[in-house]
Amino acid sequence: MDNVYIGDIELVPFNFAPNKWSKCEGQLIQINQHPTLYSLLGSRYGGDGVTTFALPNLKDASPIPGMHYCISMEGLYPPRN
Q: How far is residue 34's CA from residue 18's CA, in Å, rounded to a whole number?
């Protein structure tokens, strides 16, 4: 999973998030730990927008049991055209 954009969401066939990824389960993240991802997501999925933001909650959205959506916590910044 190299050369991915920060904030990419992928469906993975295993029960863990790969290195530099996190499961999309609505968890709160500290803005100061992931300011680049916050610049893309903002507080649209939750958090106070001052110290925390939330990842999307896709726990129950998997089309196949046992698979999970994960979001890239690091990567290339997506270009804006």
A: 17
The Cα 73–Cα 81 span in angstroms is: 22
Handedness of CA 56, 46, 40, 3 (dihedral sign): negative
pTM (global) more than 0.85: yes
Give the rounded percent of residues in the chain with a pLDDT score beyond 90: 83
Helix (H, G, I), strand (E, B) or coil at 62: coil
CA–CA gap between residue 68 and residue 79 (Å, rounded): 27
- Eight-state DSSP code of residue 21: E
Provide the pLDDT for residue 47. 97
